[in-house]
Amino acid sequence: MEKKIINLGIFGFGCVGQGLYEVLNRTKGINARIKKICIKDPSKPRSIDSSYFTTDKNEILQDPTIDVVVELINDTEAAFEIVSTALRNGKAVVSASKRMIAENLPALYQLQVDNKVPFLYEGSSCASIPIIRNLEEYYDNDLLNAVEGICNGSTNYILTKIFEENLSFETALQQAQDKGFAETDPTLDIEGYDPKFKIVILLLHAFGTFVKPEEVFNFGIHHLNDFDIQFAKQRNCTIKLIGNCRRQNGSVFAYVLPHLIKEHNLLSDVDNEYNGILLESAFTDKQFFVGKGAGGTATGSAVLSDISALLYNYRYEYKKIKQANQPAFTNDVQLKIYLRYKNPEHVELSEFYSISEKYESPTWRYIVGVINLEKLKEADWLTNKDVNILVLE
């Protein structure tokens, strides 16, 4: 992009949109200005001048003076329509909509190729951590073995408050909502859907593998109870919701599951709304990234970084897609897990390869055993609220 000043058309002025506005106005080194912001509800009180706002999407999409469309809305279908229209119109696009991107990755990749315009979305994956650009520019696919970590600030905040301040799940969740880290409907966060969308995106940039979100198993912290918390504390561990994608035997697998994390693990000290990502590669072993994973200015800063990159004609090259050895996706891997349940009829212990530990009391039971990830993904018994699982290191 040759212009010294970028004209922005923004869709959405919620938490991230306002965060972008704030960081843009506090940053002196980026030649970008907001020309128009498209919003749904014109009657809602806004913190900036009303002349910025419109309810007509075409004021942005059809305006030839707008260089970059910034998409920051919650409606997945509308977001995809906005992004695809903008790309077809030859406009560069920046987005932070992880669900929309994860559900439409092949189409979005092809739109970039066909229309020869960049689509950047660093803010969709780990908020302030520049993980996509690192995967694109630094890590060669032949060397990278795994990407795993905490990529949902809302659940990490909740778990931190539970373990460090002995708050109840409900109180910690309310605090996360009050601070703007969790939505009014927290389902996507606490059941692990939000980090799953991020893992789907990271799978593509880490390994060149397209995966549909429904292929990746996710189970969150919504069944966590006091018994599980005591189990962790008795072993000097904490619990973290982990997204994991890992190469194994020529394939790659991925999941989002709560993990029992030991003290020596780098992720054990990632607290509150922070994210932490571990990369494992053949020659550099482990490298660790940490940064804020929730909040308007954290994600807004990542969006602004993408806007700045467009000034230098940056775009994702998707090098790993073009390589001949990108791994196929599989769920055929074994995991060692803790399984807590109330009654034997609530679970299918016969699906475990092996069981190394058992416990029974009048209230709760648990086992530690090895099970196939595909079996977990298909397990109807995990819908029972009296059943919970944790992956063991």
Automatic annotation (TrEMBL):
InterPro entries: Asp/hSer_DH_NAD-bd, HDH_cat, HDH_CS, NAD(P)-bd_dom_sf. One of its GO terms (molecular function) is homoserine dehydrogenase activity. This is Homoserine dehydrogenase. Belongs to the homoserine dehydrogenase family. Keywords: Amino-acid biosynthesis, Methionine biosynthesis, NADP, Oxidoreductase, Threonine biosynthesis. The keyword Amino-acid biosynthesis applies. Its EC number is 1.1.1.3. It catalyses: L-homoserine + NADP(+) = L-aspartate 4-semialdehyde + NADPH + H(+). Residues 130-307 form the Homoserine dehydrogenase catalytic domain. Residues 12-122 form the Aspartate/homoserine dehydrogenase NAD-binding domain.
